[in-house]
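ugh ok fine here u go
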Amino acid sequence: MMNNRIYKYFFHEFINYFLIILFASVSVIWTIQAVNFLDLVTDDGHAFTIYLTYSLLILPKMLTKLIPFSFFISAILTISKLEKDNELIILWTSGLNKIHIVNLIFRISLLVMIIQLFMSCFITPKTLNISRTLLKNSELQFIPSLLKEKKFNDAVEGLTIFVEEKNIDKEYKNIFIRDEGNILTKISQGSSTIFAKSGYLAENEKSLILKKGSIQKIEANGSVNIINFDKTSINFSGLSTKSIVEPKIQETTTLKIIQCMRDKSKNKHNCGRHREERKDVKIEMNKRFGMPMYIPMIGLVSCFLLSSRKDKKLFLFNKYIYLIIISLLILIFAEISVRYSGLSLNHTILYYFIPIGMLPLIYISLIKKFKYENLN
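structure:
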């Protein structure tokens, strides 16, 4: 019963640190990313609700990325807090075996590993795919974002817009529109160029009213047809930007990736026959299944902080520095090596062997280290 209360106390301390660090770091990074995503409104003309929903849908990706780092920091802070408050000394003198705490930390790391596996294999690809579909199905809502002074805006595929000046009355001067995809002017087949001395947005901001200009239409036979106008309206409703709408490999479901790896004859999006495409599929698969396996390894490494040797000067400070550096190197190695894991079968085997093979070695080292420190 006493041990169970100790384990629950340790677990609660760790979970508190873990959740605080995870959501604090996610909040900071999400805020930075959300600012960057403002381009979806200011440049691409998407609605603010689209921007906000898209920003929220990338949260699972950030959570997945930050889980290993948060686990590593939480383990260090939990042990540091218990050591600073002399709670660890009380536990050792009461007869608690240190290896029991090691086992507890290892079980917690397995739990966190399972959570990250679930996130990386199912939740993150699904939410990223939904976010891509959201952009694909959305239309331009903020036409003013296409009309920027002294800037060629090509946010819409096949359409380039340039405005020389915008005055205080919200009237645009010297407007140039290059319509290569027959998007706006459907007079005939072929590209067209529109010049206008001035223009302004309609009240619904779906149309651009142009005054005193011309439309130069290139016909299929190469001839140029010029149409002059005193006033005309260009309808921008229904347009979509050229934001990437095809799902990337990280937005593809795990089931489809597995099917792609099993059937090499497939030639679909994100599942091609070329060597480079197959490599990207393998890397993504290893990233989803391999990265979480490094969490138990970090958990066992952090257990060396349980060492109670305080007889050496600055030992307490040094052991934290050394273990923080080692843990960070493990995380960095995992991130770098996964990029090479798809080069060959040997690279893949090595990528998985390191965390799995190192676990028993680290555990045995901990048993030997604590053999003479434990009181029972």
